[in-house]
Amino acid sequence: MDSNELKQKITEDEIKNLFAAFNERGLLAKHDHLCCSTCASADLGDEADRDGGYIGIAYNHEQDMEYFSKDPTELIIRYCQTNDGKYHSKHIGMIISFIARSQGFLIDWDGNPNIVIRLHK
Q1: Is 27 helix (H, G, I), strand (E, B) or coil?
Q2: Calpha distance 68→42 (Å, rounded)
């Protein structure tokens, strides 16, 4: 049996609940947001600057969701710090990992702030 066969599919409800938990804990979090990292991070950075009060940004975009549609056992979470730099990207990644674990996800991330976080069930 292939190890991928052991992984559980991640449901839309689980994704919705995860992103709600991100937002509840002070992240500006958007699922399936815009086409790519460049557009999504620029847009979310502008929104965080305009609205203020966020500790960081968590998102995925259309290209990530195209990948997810082919492998619904792995969800990519991208993240970055806000422009005020109050929290470093690595800290944002640690917060995201903590929240995702509390939602029942397994984390595939080595702590490198330049690498996406991959979630499994």
Answers
A1: strand
A2: 23
Give CA–CA dist 75/64, Å, rounded. 8
Q: Could you report the per-residue pLDDT of 35-79, keeping only the tens digit for each?
A: 999 999 999 999 999 998 999 999 999 999 999 999 999 999 999
Please tell me the distance from the alpha carbon of residue 56 to that of residue 95, in angstroms, as a whole number.
9
18: which 2 tokens? 């995860």
Burial class (CB in 10 A: 0-12, 13-18, 19+), 84: exposed
Return d(Cα 102, Cα 71) in angstroms, integer: 23
Long-range contacts of 42-48 (CB under 8 A, 24+ apart): 44/80, 45/80, 45/82, 45/83, 48/82, 48/83
Instruction: Determine the angle formed by the axes of helices 12-24 and 89-102, rounding to 10 degrees.
Output: 130
Contacts of 67 (CB under 8 A, 6+ apart): 74, 76
Average pLDDT, stretch 90-108? 98
